[in-house]
Design brief:
about 25% strand; 29 strands; TIM Barrel; Immunoglobulin-like; globular; seven-stranded antiparallel beta sheet; about 20% helix; about 550 residues; alpha+beta; single chain; 3 domains
């Protein structure tokens, strides 16, 4: 990303520049590629445009600003040189969603492995200090330490909400009091990008802050959407639209009174973001818990489901208009039994890829076992992405639900468990084991996996807790219930020899492979698990 700074002859303090729209058109003469980036007001008479060139070589630019002649018709040139570092997002280009693919990829088509870490209170994390929960980490910056450590552990995405931000866009405008907070936000975005992580960032405030007046004010929504894209859209980002806004942020439950399923203003926000984002970054609306909302409502169970649990972005017409091209699901699958086939099919049968964006947080509603299981279940159920979260990191210094005991179906999480600081939870075994999950998946063409859903014509299960997916030549079964029984594949290639290897998701180690031959009827009886812990079986 590069920045161009412009100075107007007019000082726009304190009310802001909402009546001024400065755009800069960037053209690559050799290929004819043209990208138009909106500029943002940065206080006083200053405007900035941020641009990430997508092609090497010479570029030229020209400004257009009908409302301010001092900003209109300016010209310039620069040269983009080839990136010579080792960060994939700069080697391969921005993350994209391509039609017909159930996974995200980089701009050059390389599959992108979405492994996210959750930070709903990013702006509360100290940027220039270790903070009170740093323990003996030696951190000089709380925020930077976690970003660096998560990158080392194999995470690829940083998931954030603007909780604790020192800017306030819920009034529908950007004025001088917001500028210091937005400049502070720049530091966070730049550091995440510099670490090579993709930033799945939510716009613009917590969903309950959407007032009825703003929800009905299309001009105000357009203003803050445009400014957000202008300021942050040249970073490696994924748009995720506030907090659980799809389909109505629990309006029937009383969590917010401003809108419902029929007049959800975040649909309009998505449309504006899509309009101003020349890079077409992936865009989704963070969904309510899957008990309330899925794609079409399948798999939901709550009685107060607005719109019968269907997404406000479900129709292809709305998806095209808004740029909504992936699902940010909130799913906490059972840790003891089979996955819900109705829910999994609902997402898998959609033309858009899905990420299990939010589930149980480690140290709050589950422990290492549950966090690890959620990741494996997600990927083998066709959710080609998983958002991990840990206590004091998912929401820094939060007291949310910490004084009660929770139960995830396997383990009890006590108030004492919930008092862990981030300096301890950053090293939870499950966080490191997410790296093992990634290493396993990247050992073959994981993006071609198709989930096998409770179909006895394909697999006769003896285990109570398992998930099964396969490609044209690879079968992957994850057994997570506390038993050693497995089952029998009933539709494998007949009379062939297969190599079976057990993978330990707790240590990242492989067992010695064994060879088994399928019957003439196309059946393959699987060996028992090595012990009562969770194990992954790869068959090739």
């Amino acid at each position: 990303m590069t920045e161009l700074r412009f100075e107007s002859s007019t000082d726009y303090n304190p009310g802001g520049s909402e009546k001024v729209s400065l755009d800069v058109s960037f053209t690559h003469p050799k290929t004819g590629v043209t990208l138009v980036r909106p500029a943002f007001w940065d206080g006083g008479n200053e405007f900035l445009v941020r641009f990430a060139p997508t092609v090497e070589g010479k570029w030229k630019w020209r400004s257009v600003c009908p409302q301010d002649s001092s900003l209109d018709g300016l010209k310039g040139r620069f040269t983009c040189e080839k990136y010579d570092g080792n960060l994939p997002v700069y080697q391969h280009g921005f993350v994209k969603v391509e039609p017909g693919r159930k996974y995200m990829s980089y701009a050059d088509g390389t599959p992108f492995f979405y492994l996210g870490d959750t930070h709903w209170g990013m702006y509360l994390e100290e940027f220039d200090a270790p903070g009170p929960n740093a323990g003996n980490t030696g951190a000089e910056s709380h925020f930077k330490y976690i970003v660096d450590r998560r990158a080392e552990q194999g995470f690829t995405v940083y998931q954030s909400e603007p909780l604790g931000a020192s800017f306030n866009l819920s009034d529908g405008k950007v004025d001088s009091v917001d500028i210091p907070g937005l400049r502070a936000a720049d530091k966070y975005y730049k550091y995440i990008a510099g670490a090579g992580l993709v930033h799945a960032n939510a716009e613009f405030f917590f969903a309950s802050s959407m007032r009825a007046e703003l929800a009905a004010n299309g001009d105000a929504l357009r203003t803050i959407s445009r400014d957000w894209v202008a300021r942050f859209g040249a970073f490696p980002v994924i748009w995720t639209l506030a907090q659980e806004i799809d389909n109505d942020f629990y309006s029937e439950r009383g969590d917010q009174p401003a809108y419902d399923f029929t007049n959800n203003p975040w649909v309009k926000v998505a449309e504006y973001i899509h309009k101003y984002d020349c890079y077409s970054h992936p865009l989704s609306g963070h969904q309510e818990n899957s008990w309330y909302t899925t794609v079409s409502g399948k798999g939901t169970g709550a009685s107060d489901r607005d719109g019968d649990g269907a997404s406000v972005f479900r129709s292809e017409e709305v998806a095209k208009r808004t740029g909504h091209n992936w699902w940010a699901a909130q799913w906490s699958p059972s840790l003891t039994g089979p996955v819900d086939p109705g829910l999994v099919r609902d997402y898998w049968e959609s033309s858009r890829p899905a990420v299990n964006y939010e589930g149980r947080y480690c140290g709050l509603w589950t422990k290492d076992f549950g966090s690890r299981v959620q990741g494996w279940i997600s990927f083998l159920s066709g959710f080609f992405g998983y958002g991990y979260g840990a206590i004091d990191i998912w929401l820094y210094r939060s007291d949310y639900d910490v004084n009660t005991e929770s139960f995830d179906g396997v383990e009890h999480i006590t108030p004492a468990d919930k008092m862990k600081p981030w300096s301890e939870s950053i090293e939870y075994p499950s966080a490191i084991q997410m790296g093992y999950l990634r290493s396993f998946m990247e050992s073959f063409d994981w993006w071609n996996l198709t989930p096998v859903l409770n179909d006895e014509e394909a697999f006769k299960a003896d285990a109570s807790g398992y998930v099964y997916a396969r490609t044209s030549d690879t079968h992957v079964l994850y057994f997570f219930s506390k038993e050693t029984t497995t089952g029998e594949i009933t539709d494998i290639q007949a009379g062939n020899t297969f190599r079976l290897s057990w993978y330990n998701p707790r240590s990242g180690e492989w067992s010695n492979p064994v060879n088994l031959t399928s019957s003439e009827e196309g059946r393959l009886v699987l060996p028992e698990k090595p012990d009562f812990e969770d194990w992954v079986l790869m068959i090739r």
